[in-house]
Amino acid sequence: MTSDQLSLNLGSFSPPRAGDVFYFAVLPEKQAAEQALELAHGDQQEHGLSGKIYDRDRLHVSLAKVREGRGLSEAVDEFAAKLGSRAKAAGFHLCFDRIVSVGHVRQYPRILTCGSSVPGFDALIREITGLRDISGEVIPHMTLFYSDRKAPHVDLARPIAWTVRGFALVHTRKGRGEFRIVDRWPLSL
């Protein structure tokens, strides 16, 4: 018996390559990161949430994306270095006073955030991007973990705060959990 069904040989299956994302970020000081992780563990227990809590070295506050795609070319590296080195912003105080869930389709990031924009944070974004007018209010946040459901908004009795003294260019690989600091720049104090 013969089959009239078309058959294609597409070769062996290989999983899709991870996407590379390059962005500028503020990294928390050690004490602030440890407080954030302690809070994340307590939050999961209190609200019955699941999800892998980020490692301390992966915690960050995103500033501006440089590139998303496959691989890092020398041109992207040079471009990012120019953007980072031209930022002449001053250090600033960053204070997260609440933890909230942000809605997505199947995953709900549990994030630390604050009630309003932070002038020093906005100034750093403007310095990096070269944009003088940022449309809308930019409110910093730091993702702690992704859960399968939302949890209530919680105002923190003990806010998590630190003085931001620098920023970094970060390279992550989507879907792989890889996080690497490419370069760092200080802020004036």
From TrEMBL:
**Stored InterPro entries:** Cyclic_Pdiesterase
Q: What is this protein called?
A: Uncharacterized protein
